[in-house]
Design a protein that fits this description.
The protein has a domain at about 1-90. The longest helix is centred in the last third of the chain and has 19 residues, at about 165-185. The protein is elongated, with a radius of gyration of 23 Å. The strands form 2 sheets. The protein has a two-stranded antiparallel ribbon. A two-stranded antiparallel ribbon has the order 2-3. By secondary structure, it is mainly alpha-helical. The protein has 7 helices and 4 strands.
Length: about 190
């Protein structure tokens, strides 16, 4: 959970034709599967890695992340740049020490899967991950757990094929040629 304090400030109220004081507001946020599911059911599109989201859709996701119910709906209009930066950093935090090794010699294009709430729920069900326990956890932590469980259930899936020495030398030679050409050097 992330706590964000929107500081007290002043805003111009067009209806009253005067400046009003906006009280400080505390948001309690969870970047979780429940938040994602709530947002996607409202907007009917995927959120994770979507580069075409509007500012309003992103603000609405912050609303969906809010777990305290005593928040004035207009409070989100007064989030500061620092508040937004703090929220984005929280959402991008992996929340785990786990990391995955990628094969630098694998030049095949990676298939980018669109990750929706239903895809995550499906993975949880097929891997036996208890939904009631994990759907309120940080989303990045949950996605890492799903990936770890998947790799542990299929340990041979990503094992590197044995490459003979000649083939490996040819691959390295091609990489070196490309680098030399790019840098304009002889070696």
């Amino acid at each position: 959970m992330k706590t964000i304090v929107i500081p007290e400030g002043e805003a111009y109220n067009e209806k009253l034709n005067k400046f009003i004081t906006i009280p400080s507001v505390t948001l309690k946020l969870e970047h979780s599967l429940l938040s994602l599911q709530k947002w996607e059911s409202k907007h009917h599109k995927y959120f994770i890695d979507n580069k075409d989201l509007t500012e309003e859709e992103i603000l609405d996701y912050i609303r969906c992340m809010t777990i305290n119910s005593d928040v004035d709906p207009n409070a989100y209009d007064y989030l500061t740049k620092e508040n937004i930066k703090e929220i984005v950093n929280y959402m991008e935090d992996p929340m785990t020490a786990t990391w995955f090794r990628e094969d630098p010699l694998d030049n095949r294009p990676k298939k980018k899967e669109i990750l929706t709430a239903e895809v995550i729920y499906s993975s949880m069900i097929s891997l036996g991950i208890p939904i009631d326990i994990f759907e309120k956890r940080h989303l990045n932590h949950l996605i890492t757990l799903i990936r770890v469980c998947g790799e542990m259930q299929n340990p041979d899936k990503d094992k590197k094929k044995k490459v003979n020495t000649k083939e490996l030398a040819m691959r390295y030679s091609e990489i070196n040629k490309a680098r030399k050409a790019k840098l304009g050097t002889k070696g």
